[in-house]
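TICKET: design request
STATUS: open
ATTACHED STRUCTURE:
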């Protein structure tokens, strides 16, 4: 009898733990789902500066991988090209990251305006 009570208690604790994780996922208290956020020019400038720093650091990193032989020159060029494309797209979107939905996640994260 004691084993059954302990098993039920453990199942309840685990189920409550999972429900709190699922309910908290992706919820921003100040933003409702589907709400469009508009950044100010100062915010865009600050984000732009940070993204530019990350982009240049990542470029240096890829170049080091090529230098050390981890990537071939062709692989490095391909990675740098993809990074440049993503960086330009991010600039065009005003540094608003666009999350693309993955069908296996069951969510629509990128809503077209």
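STATUS: resolved
RESOLUTION: sequence designed for all positions
ATTACHED SEQUENCE:
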């Amino acid at each position: 009898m004691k084993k059954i009570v302990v098993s039920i208690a453990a199942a309840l604790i685990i189920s409550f733990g999972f429900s709190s994780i699922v309910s908290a996922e992706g919820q921003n208290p100040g933003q409702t789902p589907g709400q469009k956020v508009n950044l100010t020019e100062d915010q865009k400038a600050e984000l732009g500066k940070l993204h530019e720093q990350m982009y240049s650091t990542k470029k240096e990193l890829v170049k080091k991988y090529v230098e050390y032989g981890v990537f071939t020159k062709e692989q490095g060029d391909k990675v740098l090209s993809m990074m440049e494309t993503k960086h330009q797209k991010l600039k065009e979107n005003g540094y608003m990251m666009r999350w693309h939905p993955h069908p296996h996640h069951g969510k629509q994260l990128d809503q077209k305006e």
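CLOSING REMARK: Residues 29 and 35 are 12 Å apart (CA to CA). The longest helix spans residues 41-67.
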